[in-house]
Amino acid sequence: MEDRPRIEWFMQDGARPHRTEKVFRFLDEYFGNRVIALDQPKFTGTGMDWPPYSPDLTPCDYFLWGALKDTVYGNNLSTLDKLESSICVACNSISIKILKDVMSNFILRLRHLIF
């Protein structure tokens, strides 16, 4: 991975544990100015601040976490093994059609941002 150009951008959520100076320094070291995060510019002088009222852009944010939560927590999860198993079953039960719909929605979200 080190021998290929770094073109990825990192878009961080606004969770407080993810907004420490140590985290910001790590992100700055790896991604440089290709970070979109609340308070990133304040700590590092690089990157972009998270735009106010911006939509969640990642499929995990607008689809997966909610779908997994609804499915997984409907079960009796008395052990960590049961939780892990329930998460795996829930992920494996997502159909290809649903995944295609989610990705189509992702493209639509990006177009709304660009245009």
Q: Which helices and strands occur, and which strands form pairs?
A:
Blueprint: E1 10-11, H1 21-31, E2 35-36, H2 40-44, H3 59-72, H4 80-92, H5 96-114
Parallel strand pairs: 1-2
Helix pairs in contact: 3-4
**Low-confidence region ranges:** none
Q: In the residues, how many domains can be counted?
A: 2
- pLDDT averaged over residues: 83
Distance between the termini: 33 Å
- Beta content: under 5%
Shape: globular
- Looking across the biggest beta sheet, what order are the strands in? 1-2
What is the percent of helical residues?
40-55%
Give the strand tally: 2
Radius of gyration: 17 Å
Number of distinct helices: 5
Biggest sheet: strands, sense, closure?
Answer: 2 strands, parallel
Structural class: mainly alpha
Which H/E pattern describes the elements? EHEHHHH
Protein name: Tc1-like transposase DDE domain-containing protein
InterPro entries: RNaseH_sf (IPR036397)
Organism: Araneus ventricosus (Orbweaver spider)
GO molecular function: nucleic acid binding
Brief overview:
By secondary structure, this protein is mainly alpha-helical. It contains five helices and two strands, in the order βαβαααα.
Can you describe this structure?
It is built from five helices and two strands; from the N terminus they run βαβαααα. The chain is mainly alpha-helical and 115 residues long. Helix 3 packs across helix 4. Helix 1 links the parallel strand 1 (10-11) and strand 2. It is globular, with a radius of gyration of 17 Å. The protein has helices at 21-31, 40-44, 59-72, 80-92, 96-114; strands at 10-11, 35-36. The two termini are 33 Å apart. It folds into two domains: 10-49, no CATH class; 55-113, no CATH class. It has a two-stranded parallel sheet with strand order 1-2.
